[in-house]
């Protein structure tokens, strides 16, 4: 089905008139975030605040998003966002946990951030699984455990998360934390690329150009460490390449 925000707005408005908390939350979200709709951020925020007064986790989550997202004429309010995400987390709303984790990490509380990523991962949030996997892979804020990292990348990838697919594919390609499996690695990196992941797209294109002969493996993996993004990413992947060489 194609998106039709105007029709969605109509049905949400009807639900709002009937007192549906879900409709109020969705309606507020549409006014704040929908691209194909004339936005009314103030109206959207009013509706989300109204829904949060009903102790509704989805409304807390949306209101948290509204406060942590940069918008013209509106400052980011991390503290207010954290308060709303915390309320949603108390009701085990999965998607809020990776935001809480990111807030903690940005405020130099990595151990607390890891706890949020872990909780979100256990509740099935793909972004939390990916973020927790990255932390375990590099040993940042938590003891390094590449086997556990590969497991969480796998879980994230199974849910269709593009970054999870790429990193699970990279682990399969390098044999880090899991058995090497070139065919599976290519499949995962390809799926990530199809979702628009630039790193995966560049890496997969290079693999296609060079072929998958064993004698090309060093070049294939090294390209993934060198050509896929900004300077920080290049440095990170040089470390990944070194880790592969040591395996």
Automatic annotation (TrEMBL):
What Gene3D superfamilies does UniProt report for this protein, alphabetically?
A: Tetratricopeptide repeat domain
**Naturally occurring in which organism (per UniProt):** Vannella robusta
Q: What is this protein called?
A: Uncharacterized protein
Q: Name one Pfam family in it.
A: Sel1
UniProt lists the family membership as follows: Belongs to the sel-1 family.
The record ties this protein, via InterPro entries, to: Sel1-like, Sel1_AlgK, TPR-like_helical_dom_sf
Q: Which domain of life is it from?
A: Eukaryota
């Amino acid at each position: 089905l194609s998106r039709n925000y105007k029709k969605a707005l109509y049905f949400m408005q009807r639900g709002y008139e009937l007192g549906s908390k879900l409709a109020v939350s969705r309606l507020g979200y549409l006014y704040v975030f929908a691209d194909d709709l004339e936005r009314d951020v103030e109206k959207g925020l009013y509706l989300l605040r109204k829904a949060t007064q009903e102790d509704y986790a989805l409304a807390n989550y949306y209101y948290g998003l509204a406060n942590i997202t940069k918008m013209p004429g509106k400052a980011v309010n991390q503290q207010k966002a954290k308060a709303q995400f915390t309320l949603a987390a108390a009701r085990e709303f999965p998607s809020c946990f990776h935001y809480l984790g990111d807030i903690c990490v940005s405020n130099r509380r990595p151990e607390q951030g890891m706890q949020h990523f872990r909780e979100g991962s256990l509740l099935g949030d793909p972004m939390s699984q990916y973020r927790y996997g990255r932390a375990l892979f590099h040993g940042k804020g938590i003891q390094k455990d590449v086997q556990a990292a590969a497991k969480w990348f796998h879980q994230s990838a199974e849910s269709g998360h593009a970054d999870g697919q790429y990193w699970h594919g990279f682990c399969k390609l390098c044999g880090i934390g899991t058995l090497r499996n070139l065919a599976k690695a290519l499949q995962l990196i390809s799926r990530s690329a199809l979702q628009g992941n630039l790193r995966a797209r560049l890496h997969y294109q290079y693999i296609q150009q060079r072929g998958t002969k064993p004698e090309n493996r060093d070049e294939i993996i090294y390209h993934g460490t060198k050509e896929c993004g900004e300077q920080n990413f290049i440095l990170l992947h040089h470390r990944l390449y070194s880790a592969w060489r040591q395996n």
